[in-house]
Amino acid sequence: MGKIVQTAGRDSLGEFAPDFAHYNDDVLFGENWNNEDIDLKTRCIITVVALMSSGITDSSLKYHLENAKNSGVTRKEIAAIITHVAFYVGWPKGWAVFNMAKEVWAEETLTDN
Q1: Sign of the CA dihedral 45, 100, 103, 4?
Q2: What is the Cα–Cα distance from 60 to 3, expressed in whole angstroms?
Q3: Separation of alpha carbons 96 and 110, rounded Å
Q4: Global pTM value
Q5: Are residues 83 and 70 in the same domain?
Q6: What is the tally of structural domains in the chain?
Q7: Which of 28, 32, 67, 98 is the most buried (most CB within 10 A)?
Q8: Does 101 share its domain with 71?
Q9: DSSP string, the chain
Q10: Both 20 and 57 in a single domain?
Q11: Which residues are within 8 A (CB) of 45 and not within 5 positions of it... i.e. 6 or more apart?
């Protein structure tokens, strides 16, 4: 897979908070997401779990669910991940994440995995 390049920080906050934009685009997504010590699929799963654990259910979670799907996480895998994590971080968080995951994996059926 090619190098991950992010510009959302600069696009959204570049003029207002240039340091934050730099850390977001160059450090978080530039250095951290391009570190090859963890494969991309695993990194995506960890990120979804971290956001779920924190109760984050806004557009950033949807972005990372889409990123997980695009990195090879199947509907069956995300369902198992969310179910497993819900036991540890709270059932309502599981419901919230499932509502968003259903949108992201809407075109996959049970037979697609």
Answers
A1: negative
A2: 20
A3: 20
A4: 0.85
A5: yes
A6: 2
A7: 67
A8: yes
A9: -PPP---HHHHHHTTT-HHHHHIIIIIIIIIITT-TTS-HHHHHHHHHHHHHHHT--SHHHHHHHHHHHHTT--HHHHHHHHHHHHHHH-HHHHHHHHHHHHHHTTT--GGG-
A10: no
A11: 68, 73, 81
Range of the domain at 89: 39-112
**Residue 4 token pair:** 């991950």
pLDDT tens digit at each of 113 positions of the chain: 578 787 888 888 889 999 999 998 999 888 888 899 999 999 999 999 999 999 999 999 999 999 999 999 999 999 999 999 999 999 999 999 999 999 999 987 655 55
Instruction: Name residue, tokens 């951290």.
Output: 32
Tokens representing residue 95 in the block? 């419901």
**Is-contact 82 94, C-beta < 8 A?**
yes
> Are 60 and 83 in a shared domain?
yes
Q: Which residues contact 92 (CB under 8 A, 6 or more apart)?
A: none
Residue 45 and residue 80 in one domain: yes
Do 16 and 56 share a domain, yes or no?
A: no
